[in-house]
Amino acid sequence: MKDLDDKHKFFLQAFMWKKICGNEEVWNLLRKCHRLVNDESETTNDEDLVQIIKEINNALKPLNMAIKSFRDELSTEMYYILVNENNNNVSRLVPDYKVQELEVLKGIITCIVKSEDGKISSTDALNLDIDSKILKRDVNNMLEMFVEDGWLCEKEGYYFFSTRAIAELQYFFRENYSEYISTCYQCKNIVFQGPVCQNCDLKLHNYCMKRSGIKMCPSCRSDFNAP
Description:
It is built from nine helices and ten strands. It is an alpha+beta fold. It has three domains: 6-84, Aspartate Aminotransferase, domain 1; 90-177, Arc Repressor Mutant, subunit A (Orthogonal Bundle); 182-226, Herpes Virus-1.
């Protein structure tokens, strides 16, 4: 970290505290860092942000950590997340969780990863097939905690991975669920919710499909199922 100046350190410290920042939040953070060190230069283009993140990531390499950008699979909003690039252990990512909480979280993760649509119903979540005998009200409290802590999102009675979870658990997913993981044809990142080819199961992120202008499966020319 000795190669980082005060501006870079302020920027990094914010990520170490928050872990995840939205696009607008990152720009506000960068402007604040400039003011804190009395830097009068303007940060008005993407290259400025890319450069400071690149310099911080170079300093973080020995720690196997990096600030990376990810788009939310549903909202398409851009987020910047501090991730451990060499961590395939959920317990290390959430060291404050108790044994039963980790068991429930891992059970939820397994169900979502193995599902065809990247989500689990609240009913199925409350009736997990796990070793420990946990009351449904306790499981419900844990689900609320996972949402509050930013690991899960809940919408219309279904739970699915947050952008933070996909970013921080990607190595865990690839290490433990490689046969169930889908990779986006366009960007090559993991995709849970997005259009799927009716014929060959090729999958895309919604935003990758829109950005690329793909209308039919590039592999077999079949139609896509809506996510």
